[in-house]
Write a structure and sequence with these properties.
alpha+beta; 1 helix; 24% helix; elongated
């Protein structure tokens, strides 16, 4: 599941992405990144790299 959203912090608007992995009744994992909305394009590649390198065992 991918959930991408924006929210207002105290001083600025943030953008975030939340990636959920897992199967019902088994382990679940959550990868989350948030950054100032104006700089999202700078930070989004970090989440993409994490997602592409993420692997579970078992």
């Amino acid at each position: 599941m991918v959930w991408e959203f924006t929210f207002r912090g105290r001083a600025r608007v943030f953008r975030a992405a939340d990636l959920g992995y897992g199967r019902e009744g088994r382990r679940e994992y959550d990868l989350y990144l948030s950054a100032p909305d104006a700089r999202w394009s700078t930070f989004r590649p970090v989440l993409d790299a994490l997602r592409n390198g993420f692997a579970t065992t078992g």
